[in-house]
Prior knowledge:
This protein is of the alpha+beta class. It contains eleven helices and 31 strands.
Amino acid sequence: MIVTTFPxxxxxxxxxxxxxxxxxxxxxxxxxxxxxxxxxxxAILEYLPYRKRDGTYERDSRTHPYLAGHGYAGVRVDxxxxxxxxxxxxxxxxxxxxxxxxxVVAWLAAQPWCSGAVGMMGISWGGFNALQVAARRPPELKAxxxxxxxxxxxxxxxxxxxxxxxxEKFGWAAFLFSAMCHPPDPELVGERWRAxxxxxxxxxxxxxELWFRHQRRDDxxxxxxxxxxxxxxxxxxxxxxxxxxxxxxxxxxxxxxLSVPRKGLIGPWAHSYPHFAKPGPQVGFLQEMLCWWDHWxxxxxxxxxxxxxxxxxxxxxxxxxxxxxxxxxRWVSEPIWPPQxxxxxxxxLCDDGLGEASAALAPRAVCTPQTVGKQAGxxxxxxxxxxxxxxxxxxxxxxxxxxxxxLDETTEILGAPLVTLEVASDKPIAYLVVRLCDxxxxxxxxxxxxxxxxLTHRDGHATPSPLEPGRRYRIRxxxxxxxxxxxxxxxxxxxxxxxxxxxxxxxxxxxTVTIFSGALDLxxxxxxxxxxxxxxxxxxxxxxxxxxxKPGVLRIDRIGLEIAAEGRFDFHLExxxxxxxxxxxxxxxxxxxxxxxxxxxxxxxxSCTRDAFRIEAGLQAWDGDSEICRREWDRxxxxxxx
Length: 642
C-alpha cells in the first residue's frame, strides 16, 4: 500500500555536507518533519557507497520519507569516496569507513533538529556497518536494525563458503569495481566534480585482488566480524532477513550470541527490504521498524519487546522453480534462541539411503562432473527474476544421493541441519557440497538447505592443512539455516557432490572423496499453534520511478539524468577439467544530461592454473569524446589450499 500523507509533513534537504576532523566532507540527503527544529526528532542513519543521488534513489524514496513522516530524520549518507562525498573508497568496511561513521553519528546527534538519539539501519552493506559501528559503542547510537547482513565476514559473506571460493565473489567484485568509477553529480558539487572523478578513477583498487590476498580467515576478515566479540555490542539489535537470501544464518547466531535486547525476523524473502521483497508475502516492515524505533529512540511503550525473540516464516513445500512470486507458509515464533523444545532427529547414511537406525554403508565414492550445480541459482538471490534454486533432479542424478523412506507424517525443521561424515580423499585438496532436498512424490526435488566444506578447512578456516590421501577424517558440515515443511508422503534426500559450479570455484584437481559412514541431524520443531497476531500489511511512501527511454536506458526525470548500461557476464567450465574455469565481465555505462555526457567501461577476467589465480582487468573513462583515464591490471596470485 502506498501512503501519501503522514502524521507530520515532510521536507527534504537534498544535499548537505557533514564535515569530518580530517577535512573530508561526506554528502547526505535528509528527510525531516517540517517542524523538526521546533520539535526535535531522533535520527536514523543509512550509510552506503551506492550513490544517494542516482543509485538508491528508488528504494530510499519508499522508506526515508515514511520514517520522517512519523517523527524521525531519515538520513542517507554516501561513504567516503562514493557519490558526492570527498575522499577515496579503498575497500569494503575499512577502518576509515567506521571511524567516519562515529563522527557522522555524533554530528547527527548535535543537530538542532535532532533529539540527540540516533539509530542505524541498512540492508547488506548498510546492515554490515550498522553492526560494526554498534560494536564501536558510540554513546549517541541507541539501537540498530540490520537487514540481510552478517556477523562473520569470512565464513558467511559473498567471498567464501565453507572455505571454498564463491563464484559470486567475482560478480560482487565486478559490480563494486564499476560502481566506484562513477563521478559525483556536477549539479551538487560544482566544477570540482572532474577533479574528484579523476582522483577516483586513478585510485580505484582492483577489489578482487585485495580479497584474494587473504584466502584464509586472518585478521583482514576478523576486522568487521562482530562474532569475534558479541559483547562489544551494547545497544539493542533487530536482525532481519529471508530464507531465500544468502545471509540468513547470521540471525540465529546473533540471537544466540548477543546479550543485549534483541529481536529477529526471518521471512520468505530474497535480498531486499521486506515491505517490497520477493518472494512474498511482503509485510508492514516500516510499521515494525517504527515500533522498534519508538521504543528505543523515543522511550514509548510499544510492546515490541514483549513479542517473541524470533518470528520466522515456516515455508510450505512447493514445486521447485527458479522464481516464486510468493512462498506459502505461516509465521511461527520462538521466545528464545536456541529453542528449548527443539528435538533433533538423526538419520543415518546406509546402503538403503537414510535410515532411522545405524546400519551398514558400503563405501561410496563421490567424484562428480565439474558442472554439477546448474540448478543452484545465485548464492544471494535478489528475487527480481529466475535467480533461485530450481528443480534439483538433474544435479541429484549427477551426485551421490541418500533418500529416506516416504514420511509417515509431516516434519518441520527450524534451524541449521548438521551432517557428520567419515571420509577420505585421493587428493590433498577436495570439496564436499551437501544439499538437503524435499523429494516430491512426482520426483521433483526442492532444495531446502545446503552446505559446502573445503576439506582442507576441516579443523577451521584460520589454519587449513592439506589432506593426506587415503587417510580417514571425521568432518562436521553445518548446512544453512532453514524453516521448512516436509509433508507426509515426501522423502528427505541428502545429495553429495565434490563440485557446485558456478556457485563454487572448482578445486585445483579433480578429486574423489569416499564416504564410509555418516549421519544427518535435522532441527525438528514440534508443530504448535503460536497464536501470533498478524503482521501489518506492507506500506511505503511513493517510490520515485524512472522513465524507460528505450531498452537499457532510464531517465531519472527529477534530476534530468539518463543512464544507459550494457554488458555481459559469463562463466565457462569444461565438464572434466577444473582448470578450464573462467569468469568474464564487460560493462559500459553512460550518464547523460543536456550539459554533457560521461562514459565508463570496465572489464574483468578470472581464470586459474593448478597453483594460482589470474585476474585481468581494464578501465576506461571518457568525458564527452575525450578519454581521461585508461588503466590495466594483470595479476597472478598463488592459491592457498583453495
